[in-house]
Specification:
mainly alpha, two-stranded antiparallel sheet, 5 helices, 2 strands
């Protein structure tokens, strides 16, 4: 149980920090201090009463879901988990949240997260990630999905 609490704490802590930094993600130091004062940003910027997360937290959530799905499927099938396949499928669900509108009748999602309307919010994901996933997310070192140098 302590290990589960540690994992949960890491995910929540990362999301909380991301939500605090989301407002200033693309601002330089001068812009931040001129807007928020000498201490910088110290409170969440709220939009309709909510602090927003970035695509980084969205992808972290889909990664965690992919890991859990892979582990569960492996245990149910009595085989080693295929984490690559389950995370790839989960990332393809995340891609849908960035390129489509929410529909309560999502067809065969891998991740339960795609059933949350709040996830359907484009949070400035990088082109490298989008391009790779739009090609099915099956790149390798020898056969990359794109030629981008981004993360």
């Amino acid at each position: 149980m302590r290990e589960l609490d540690t994992f949960r704490g890491c995910l929540i802590g990362g999301a909380a920090g991301d939500a605090l930094g989301y407002e200033i993600e693309f601002k330089n130091e001068k812009q931040i201090f001129s807007r928020y004062g000498d201490r910088g940003i110290t409170e969440y910027a709220l939009y309709q009463g909510k602090a927003l997360i970035s695509d980084d937290t969205q992808m972290t959530m889909f990664t965690a879901t992919g890991l859990l799905t892979g582990s569960t499927q492996g245990q149910l099938n009595g085989k080693a988990p295929d984490y690559h396949a389950s995370i790839r499928k989960s990332y393809l669900d995340w891609l849908r949240t960035q390129t489509e509108r929410f529909s309560s009748s999502q067809t065969e999602p891998c991740s339960w997260l795609i059933r949350l309307p709040e996830m359907f919010s484009c949070r400035a994901p990088g082109n490298t990630c989008l391009m790779a996933l739009e090609k099915g997310g099956r790149g390798t070192l020898d056969l990359p999905a794109n030629t981008s140098k981004g993360c």
